Every structure is written in structure tokens, then in C-alpha cells.
Amino acid sequence: MSNSSSITQFLLLAFTDTQELQLLTFWLFLGIYLAAILGNGLIITAIACDHHLHTPMYFFLLNLSLLDLGAISTTVPKAMASCLWDTMAISYMGCAVQLFFFLFLITAEYCLLTVMAYDRYLAICKPLHYGTLLGSRTCVHMAAAAWGSGFLYALMHTANTFSLPICQGNAVDQFFCEIPQILRLSCSDSYFREVGLLLLSACLGFGCFIFIVLSYVEIFRAVLRIPSEQGQHKAFSTCLPHLTIVSLFISTGIFANLKPPSTSSPSLDLVVSFLYSVVPPAVNPLIYSMRNQELKDALKKLILSFIPLQK
User: Average of pLDDT values for 77-82?
Assistant: First the structure.
């Protein structure tokens, strides 16, 4: 049996044991990572440079892109290095830091998605009061609350998780450090405090989920009352990308953390964690830019500004 004081590193789970497939996995991660950096970077730059996009919705979208960049950068670079150099070891402190930043950014993103649902509710259901209720100072405070909530959540869970004694070795059945996998390594009689915190967090997360659902129920009722088809299309074009991202984020996250132990396997855990930790930051820019004409025009203008005019 191991003791946490003697553990200096953890061993992450490899995607494959074959060297050729390891290299293929590296190129896959590299492609996804570059796509996430390019997509989110373009959205951040377009919103920052185009004064037409200096509205609450795009301010929150800019924050979402920043969180996506941070979240994918906490897991994918380490996974690429592991595939390239065939070393799955991560230091004890490195694991704690990775867990903290991943929890911080993912939780802040979930809180921000809740704020964005409220933004869409006010824009569609209370358009006359939208500018008054969501002024620039209010938007900054709401975004700061989302970031601050993520920070406190991550600090609490990381400190509590890594204060538990480790008795079951140091092999983490995941390609990055994750709370459920660390808890499996702790002593059987010492992890109930963290499980209690997770249940409390799940209740709070469920409350945010209910708020998002109720917001969209009201939004869809308001949109269906719009007499013109063009007006309905414009309203849906600003809501559906957010709803798609929320659905992807919540469904994969719930399945990853609440699936029955009988269905759990290292391969399934890898796939599910890949879906909720890597895929959303990469596809969020695509989802938003596909249906939002204002953002597409701003991105087109930004890209053309970097292309020299032919004489």
C-alpha cells in the first residue's frame, strides 16, 4: 500500500500502447488544439476590434472563448507530450495544478453559460429593458462572478482532494488529472468528505441547469409569438448556438461523472472525458460563427484585413 507522502508522481492512462497509434493520437490532438486556438483567437480578436460587437452578448462570448482557450490548454499539451515522448508520468504538484486550473476554467464556463442564458432571456423577452438591466458595469460584475465562482470551486475541491491520503497506488485511469480518478486512489474511509462536496456541487450545478432550461422555455414562448418569420429567424440565430453549446457541455459532463460503475471502463472513460474536455472548446467557435451573421461578417472583415490587396 502506498502513502500520499511517498508519492511524487502519478501515471496517466495512455490512449494506446502502439507507437504508431501514439503518433497518430499526437497529430489528432495537435490538429484539434490548433483549431481551438485559431477559432477562439479569431473570435476574441474580432469582438475586441469591431465596435459593432461591443454588446453584452459578445462580451460574454469573448469571455467564453478565453475560458475555452484556457481549458483546452490545461489538458491537451500534456496529452500531446505524453504521446510524443511516450511518458505518462506527471508530478504530484503538476497533477494538483492541472486539476485546479481545469476545474477553475470548466466551472467558470458553466457559470458563464448560465449568465449567457439570462442575457438571451432579457434580450428576447424584455427587449425594452435590456440596455438598462445589462449595462456595461453589470456585465463586468456578472462575468467576474462567473470567474470568481470557478476559482473558489476549484480551490476548495483541489485542496480537499489532495489532502486525502493515497492508498491505492498512483495509476490514474485518465489522460489528465480528474477528481473521480484521484478519489479512487484514496483510502476507502477518507474520501467521504470530498464526495459530500461533490454532491453539494452537483445540486448547485443542477440549479443552474434548471435556470437555463426555464430561461429557454420563456425564450421559445416569446419567439413563437413574434409575428414575422424573419424576426423569429433572427431571434433563433442568437439563441440556438448557445443552446447547442450548453447541451453538448452538460450532456457529456453529466455522463462522464454520473454514469453507473458497471458501465465504466478505461476506454469509455477516455472517450467521454475527451468529449467534454477537448471537443467543446474546439467546436464552440464553429457553432457560434455558423449561425451568427454579425459574427461571420466581423470574422470575414478581420481575415480580409490581414490579406494584402492586390494592385
Answer: 90
Task: Identify which of 147, 146, 121, 145 has the alpha carbon closest to the alpha carbon of residue 134.
Answer: 121
The CA R_g of the chain, rounded to the nearest whole Å, is 21
The 8-class DSSP code of residue 284 comes to H
Q: What type of residue is 96?
A: A
Nearest to 294 by CA among 39, 38, 52: 52
Return d(Cα 224, Cα 90) in angstroms, integer: 52
52 touches 296 (CB < 8 A): no
Quick one: which of 142, 185, 193, 179 has its CA closest to 167?
185
- 1 close to 167: Cβ distance less than 8 angstroms: yes
Ramachandran angles phi, psi of 211, nearest 5°: -60, -40
This prediction has a pTM of: 0.87
- Residue 237: phi and psi, rounded to 5, are -65, -25
Name the helix (H) or strand (E) containing 15. none
Identify which of 158, 159, 62, 151 has the alpha carbon closest to the alpha carbon of residue 106. Answer: 151
Continuous segment of H or E residues that includes residue 261: none
**CB-hemisphere CA count at 13 Å for 274?**
16
Residues 255-300 have pLDDT tens digits of 666 665 555 667 777 777 888 888 888 888 888 776 677 888 888 8
